[in-house]
């Protein structure tokens, strides 16, 4: 008699890894949409390009590693990595930037460590940092939000910009505001201004802060926050890391702002500009590279928040999430080792 | 701050960590009354304790009645097995067990005769029984925990410490299972009666009957029964517990009801708590009041592959195949699973011949849509959902990594042993990792490792003990040798010791002489003794002579001491007499010189005599010594001729020696007498070989010899024995004589 045998339990929640990944991607869509609205089709092109490269790279490596290709491709983890790289890269960055970044993320950071679940570093953030250090000019060339741009980009122009049939002068023209002055991202602007000896108030008078937080960035962050809340609701992620990041960033920046409002970015602007929300909900919550226990995750999140504040305020880069997440990734195994929950029946003290 | 009991009375509930909410699916089987199953043709009763703490009480071919015990035992943990119906024991052999492995275990197979005849049940009134009697009844009824673990109830009800809180577990948190639900609805009074007995045995302060809130009918029925019962309403309460898996786990239930945690590695009794299943309470009542053994239990048969899902009274030992046949199985045995227990913790059954056990609460026959596909395991993404679901607050993910990597010590350091295998982690795992299976493998590997380690440690201990013992022995030997060496040194230096040593040496010499004497006598008195004896005797004699000669020269005091020497001296005397007398005498052949050896001895003696006389003539100083020797020699010669021992006394008297010389002479006499008697006996033996006599006579013969009576009586008895000789005795005597001769020879050689 050939019975079908299996170990208990015989029931399972129908929530699979691929479903989890798909839900994360879907929840990121509002953010991507808002980002495209403000920064043009370049965002979508970069994301699509990253996805194609990621899937191809993953398949190739799996063939080389003699692993089943389809089941792994279908887990959507490579797609998620690609999406995160795509939205992190400036929309008008040249195509090879995203290709190099994605290849680096999938091949080196993920597959060479053993594939899904084995990597130490968040692939998207590792790729971002690699690109930022290697190609600082291209990586900081953010186009001006369309609503305040002198020359808004359409889809054709975006393609031209990305695939290189555009001169440098032409490209630079898309970084000009409606007043004809070149504009950087809000955090970059603040950083530069503070370095130049301006006060926060003076810096905030610039057109890029037309809505108080930096045009476009506030809404992009709001969209990612909404997506994040949906993920929490769907229990795709747990709240600990995100809340810890936001709370620690808020607390740190509040202290700084209260002590010296002229030289510090305010807590609200810290939370709603740059990559804060997408990082807090979509990047830092990558379970593979985060701490696993509840307390460990709180520590992990708080560490990211503090690092972000420190790097944004005192570091050389305008935004800091990639660095903060990678540094926290390094700490995750140690956090897990030292922060073990008390198991049932193991009272403290006995 | 409220005390725990006050909080319990208020109905406070605590939160247990983790847990999951799988679909309950209880309606499938809880809609109908508990049914009866038609009798099977055959019942299989595993006898796990036989060969360990129990003995078989039945033989193959024996007819047994329902309720008759199949085993017997006296140990504390013994839990008997009973026949579930009447029939004939057809075999007692290993059968597939109701276990995930399907391992064969010794089972008693009963072919039912269909009469279902039962033994006479001893009914009793609980009030008339002592606690000890109740416990004995519970033990003899073979009651074990019916919640699934099947731990003998009589052990649990005899806790070492006081029990303050008894929890009656009616949670039944696993999906599908409704056996406790139906039992509570239909037999609430009996359950309460069982609880009363538990209350009587343990007298706890509070009793909580805990029922999950998805069983409102059961809660109501139990509440009514509680109102009807004799239990005080103040101390007993029914508590509805929010539905969550695994609230029915003992540790989880205690946490929910009291907020306390059972310490790791301990049992609830340590907290003054005890948890019993409602089914067990029912069985306790049945056993104590009705005298019925635990031969039946309620089993849920459910799942979409079951044609008549519901609850049934099933005899313990019913083969699962019979249940499938009787109740209808819509599935396909080759592609569908049969699960014993619930979908969360139950095991899939490898063989349908396996029987229903005391802990079997459910037979789940799921269709393929109902249970999870056997998806391939995917990589862990460290999502941590398992840790959120774990009711034991473990880190299932870490346990998984270490179990998979076979780093079992690390897995153990993450408290693997606290895992209750509830399956929540596997249930929530998005990567379809069979976590619980990894833990089971790791647990058994750790068990094996510990076992091996224990054995290795034991072997090491033994080895070290041996090394130590050898070392101690060596040291003891060395110390002994050292001591002996020191003693030797002391002997050499001390004058007193010297004297003692000399005396010892003398005594030894005497002893040797006696033996030699007797050997010599034997040789002369019994010439028909075999050659070897003769030769030995002759050699002994020769040696005695040889030894005697130098002593003659050295000291006068030592010489007479030895009877043997006297003999030698006799020979010398004879030689001298010959020499002194006439030359003709020397030419005359010696009377005893019939054999060559004797002749040689005589020659040697003569030569020595010459030497002695030469000395006599050569030195004036020793004149005083030599005459006395001569005198002695003369007397000795008489002794030799007369072949009597008495004159040797005269010899000693004449030579005026020490007291111990006399003693030794006496001994010598006795020895000679014995030897003579033996020789006679030997002669008698050769004379009458065939003559058979009662052994009494021979005993009489032997005894005098042993007690060293005088020679006369010895010879008398020897003569008596001549008439009624037993050939055996004679042979023994001859052997003794021979042996003595040899011994004498050996001693002499040693001396030399």
TrEMBL record, chain A:
- InterPro entries (UniProt xref): NqrB/RnfD (IPR004338), RnfD_bac (IPR011303)
EC number(s) recorded for this UniProt protein? 7.-.-.-
Query: Which cofactors does the annotated protein need, by name?
Result: FMN
Q: How does it sit in the membrane?
A: Multi-pass membrane protein
Cellular localisation: Cell inner membrane
Q: Which UniProt keywords apply?
A: Cell inner membrane, Cell membrane, Electron transport, Flavoprotein, FMN, Membrane, Phosphoprotein, Translocase, Transmembrane, Transmembrane helix, Transport
Kindly report, in one word, the top-level EC class recorded for this enzyme: translocase
The answer to whether the entry has keyword Phosphoprotein is: yes
TM spans, by residue? 20-38, 44-64, 73-89, 125-148, 213-232, 239-259, 265-284, 296-314, 320-339
What the entry lists under Pfam families is as follows:
NQR2_RnfD_RnfE
Asked if Transport is a keyword of the record, the answer is yes
List FMN phosphoryl threonine occurrences by residue. Answer: 185
The similarity annotation says: Belongs to the NqrB/RnfD family.
| Task of the protein | Part of a membrane-bound complex that couples electron transfer with translocation of ions across the membrane.
Oligomeric and partner information: The complex is composed of six subunits: RnfA, RnfB, RnfC, RnfD, RnfE and RnfG.
NCBIfam families (alphabetical): PRK00816.1, rnfD
What name does UniProt use for this protein? Ion-translocating oxidoreductase complex subunit D
In which organism is this protein found? Answer: Shewanella sairae
Its lineage reads: Bacteria, Pseudomonadati, Pseudomonadota, Gammaproteobacteria, Alteromonadales
The gene that this protein is the product of is rnfD
TrEMBL record, chain B:
Q: What is its EC number?
A: 7.-.-.-
| Chain ranges of the 4Fe-4S ferredoxin-type domain | 370-398, 410-439
Q: What class of enzyme is it?
A: translocase
| Signal peptide, first to last residue | none
**What NCBIfam families has UniProt attached to this entry?**
PRK05035.1 (NF003454), rnfC (TIGR01945)
Q: Which residues bind [4Fe-4S] cluster 2?
A: 390, 419, 422, 425
Q: What PROSITE patterns does the entry give?
A: 4FE4S_FER_1 (PS00198), 4FE4S_FER_2 (PS51379)
Any one Pfam family match given in the protein's UniProt record, by short name? Complex1_51K
Please state where this protein is localized.
Cell inner membrane
The name on file for this protein is: Ion-translocating oxidoreductase complex subunit C
Predominant localisation class: membrane
Q: Which cofactor does it need?
A: [4Fe-4S] cluster
HAMAP family per the UniProt record, alphabetical: RsxC_RnfC (MF_00461)
**What's its job?**
Part of a membrane-bound complex that couples electron transfer with translocation of ions across the membrane.
Q: Which UniProt keywords apply?
A: 4Fe-4S, Cell inner membrane, Cell membrane, Electron transport, Iron, Iron-sulfur, Membrane, Metal-binding, Repeat, Translocase, Transport
Q: Where is the composition biased (Polar residues)?
A: 688-725
Q: Where is this region: Disordered?
A: 478-497, 685-729
How does the record say this protein sits in the membrane? Peripheral membrane protein
Q: Which InterPro entries match?
A: 4Fe4S_Fe-S-bd, 4Fe4S_Fe_S_CS, Ion_transpt_RnfC/RsxC, Nuo51_FMN-bd, Nuo51_FMN-bd_sf, RnfC_N
**So what family is this one in?**
Belongs to the 4Fe4S bacterial-type ferredoxin family. RnfC subfamily.
Reply yes or no: does the keyword Cell inner membrane apply. Answer: yes
Quaternary structure, from the entry:
The complex is composed of six subunits: RnfA, RnfB, RnfC, RnfD, RnfE and RnfG.
Q: Which residues bind [4Fe-4S] cluster 1?
A: 380, 383, 386, 429
Give the cofactor binding note: Binds 2 [4Fe-4S] clusters per subunit.
């Amino acid at each position: 008699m050939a019975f079908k045998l299996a170990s208990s339990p015989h029931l399972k929640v129908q929530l699979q890894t691929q479903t989890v990944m798909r839900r994360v991607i879907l929840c990121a869509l509002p953010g991507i949409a808002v980002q495209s609205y403000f920064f043009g089709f370049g965002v979508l092109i970069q994301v699509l390009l990253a996805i194609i490269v990621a899937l191809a790279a993953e398949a190739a490596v799996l063939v080389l590693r003699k692993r089943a290709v389809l089941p792994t491709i279908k887990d959507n983890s490579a797609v998620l990595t690609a999406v995160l790289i795509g939205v992190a890269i400036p929309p008008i960055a040249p195509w090879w930037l995203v290709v190099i970044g994605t290849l680096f993320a999938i091949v080196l950071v993920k597959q060479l460590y053993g594939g899904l679940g084995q990597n130490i570093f968040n692939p998207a953030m590792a790729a971002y940092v690699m690109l930022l250090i290697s190609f600082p000019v291209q990586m900081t060339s953010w186009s001006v939000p369309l609503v305040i741009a002198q020359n808004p980009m359409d889809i054709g122009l975006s393609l031209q910009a990305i695939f290189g049939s555009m001169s440098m002068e032409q490209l630079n023209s898309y970084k000009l505001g409606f007043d004809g002055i070149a504009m950087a991202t809000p955090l970059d602007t603040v950083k530069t201004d503070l370095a130049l000896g301006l006060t926060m108030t003076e810096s905030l008078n610039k057109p890029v802060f037309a809505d108080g937080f930096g045009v476009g960035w506030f809404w992009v962050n709001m969209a990612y926050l909404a997506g994040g809340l949906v993920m929490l609701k769907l229990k795709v992620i747990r709240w600990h890391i995100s809340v810890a990041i936001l709370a620690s960033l808020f607390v740190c920046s509040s202290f700084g702002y209260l002590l010296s409002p002229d030289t510090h970015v305010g807590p609200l602007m810290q939370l709603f500009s740059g990559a804060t929300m997408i990082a807090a909900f979509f990047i830092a919550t990558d379970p593979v590279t985060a701490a696993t226990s509840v307390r460990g995750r709180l520590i992990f999140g708080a560490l990211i928040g503090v690092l972000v504040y420190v790097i944004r305020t005192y570091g050389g880069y305008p935004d800091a999430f990639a660095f903060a997440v990678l540094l926290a990734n390094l700490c995750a195994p140690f956090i897990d080792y030292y922060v073990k929950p008390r198991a049932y029946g193991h009272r403290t003290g006995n | 701050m409220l005390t725990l009991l006050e909080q319990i009375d208020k109905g406070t509930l605590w939160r247990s960590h983790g847990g999951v909410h799988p679909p309950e699916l209880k309606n499938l089987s809880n809609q109908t009354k508990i049914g009866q199953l038609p009798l099977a043709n055959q019942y299989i009763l595993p006898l796990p304790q036989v060969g360990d703490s129990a003995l078989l009480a039945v033989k193959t071919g024996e007819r047994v009645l329902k309720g008759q015990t199949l085993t017997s035992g006296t140990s504390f943990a013994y839990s008997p097995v009973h026949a579930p119906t009447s029939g004939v024991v057809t075999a007692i052999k290993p059968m597939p067990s109701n276990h995930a492995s399907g391992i064969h275990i010794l089972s008693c197979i009963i072919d039912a005769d269909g009469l279902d005849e039962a033994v006479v049940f001893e009914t009793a009134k609980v009030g008339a029984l002592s606690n000890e009697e109740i416990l004995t009844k519970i033990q003899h009824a073979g009651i074990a925990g019916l919640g699934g673990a099947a731990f003998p109830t009589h052990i649990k009800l005899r806790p070492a410490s006081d029990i303050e809180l008894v929890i009656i577990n009616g949670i039944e948190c696993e999906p599908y299972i409704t056996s406790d639900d139906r039992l509570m609805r239909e037999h609430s009074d009996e359950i309460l009666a069982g609880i009363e007995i538990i209350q009587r045995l343990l007298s706890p302060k509070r009793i909580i009957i805990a029922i999950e809130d998805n069983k409102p009918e059961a809660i109501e029925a139990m509440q009514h029964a509680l109102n009807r019962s004799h239990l005080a309403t103040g101390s007993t309460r029914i508590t509805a517990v929010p539905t969550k898996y695994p609230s029915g786990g003992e540790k989880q239930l205690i946490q929910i009801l009291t907020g306390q945690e059972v310490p790791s590695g301990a049992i609830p009794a340590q907290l003054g708590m005890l948890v019993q299943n409602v089914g067990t309470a029912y069985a306790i009542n049945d056993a104590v009041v009705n005298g019925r053994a635990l031969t039946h239990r309620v089993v849920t048969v459910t799942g979409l592959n079951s044609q008549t899902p519901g609850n049934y009274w099933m005899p313990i030992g019913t083969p699962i195949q019979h249940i499938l046949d009787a109740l209808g199985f819509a599935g396909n045995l080759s592609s569908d699973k049969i699960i014993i227990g619930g979908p969360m913790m139950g095991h899939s059954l490898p063989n349908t011949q396996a029987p229903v056990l005391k802990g079997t609460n459910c037979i789940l026959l799921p269709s393929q849509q109902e249970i999870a596909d056997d998806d391939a395991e995917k990589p862990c993404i460290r999502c941590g959902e398992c840790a959120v679901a774990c009711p034991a607050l473990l880190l299932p993910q870490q346990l998984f990594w270490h179990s998979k990597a076979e780093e079992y010590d690390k897995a153990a350091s993450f408290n693997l042993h606290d895992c209750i295998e509830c399956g929540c982690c596997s249930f929530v795992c998005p990567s379809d990792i069979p976590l619980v299976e990894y833990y089971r493998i790791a647990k058994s590997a750790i068990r094996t490792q510990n076992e091996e380690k224990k054995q290795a440690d034991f072997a090491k201990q033994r080895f070290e003990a041996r090394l130590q013992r050898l070392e101690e022995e060596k040291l003891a030997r060395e110390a002994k040798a050292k001591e002996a060496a020191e003693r030797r040194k002391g002997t050499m230096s001390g004058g007193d010791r010297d004297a003692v040593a000399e005396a010892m040496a003398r005594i030894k010499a005497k002893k040797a002489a006696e033996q030699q004497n007797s050997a010599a006598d034997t040789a002369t008195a019994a010439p028909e003794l075999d050659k070897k004896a003769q030769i030995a005797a002759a050699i002994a004699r020769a040696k005695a002579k040889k030894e005697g000669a130098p002593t003659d020269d050295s000291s006068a005091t030592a010489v007479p001491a030895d009877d043997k020497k006297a003999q030698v001296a006799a020979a010398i005397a004879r030689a001298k007499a010959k020499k002194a007398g006439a030359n003709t005498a020397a030419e005359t052949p010696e009377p005893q010189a019939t054999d060559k050896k004797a002749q040689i001895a005589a020659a040697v003696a003569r030569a020595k005599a010459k030497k002695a006389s030469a000395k006599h003539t050569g030195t004036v100083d020793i004149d005083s010594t030599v005459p006395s020797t001569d005198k002695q020699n003369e007397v000795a010669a008489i002794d030799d001729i007369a072949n009597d021992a008495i004159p040797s006394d005269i010899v000693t008297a004449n030579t005026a020696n020490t007291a111990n010389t006399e003693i030794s002479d006496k001994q010598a006499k006795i020895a000679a007498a014995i030897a003579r008697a033996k020789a006679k006996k030997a002669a008698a033996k050769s004379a009458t070989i065939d003559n058979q006599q009662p052994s009494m006579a021979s005993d009489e013969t032997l005894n005098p010899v042993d007690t060293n009576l005088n020679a006369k009586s010895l010879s008398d008895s020897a003569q008596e024995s001549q008439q009624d000789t037993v050939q055996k005795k004679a042979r023994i005597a001859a052997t003794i004589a021979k042996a003595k001769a040899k011994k004498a020879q050996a001693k002499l050689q040693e001396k030399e």
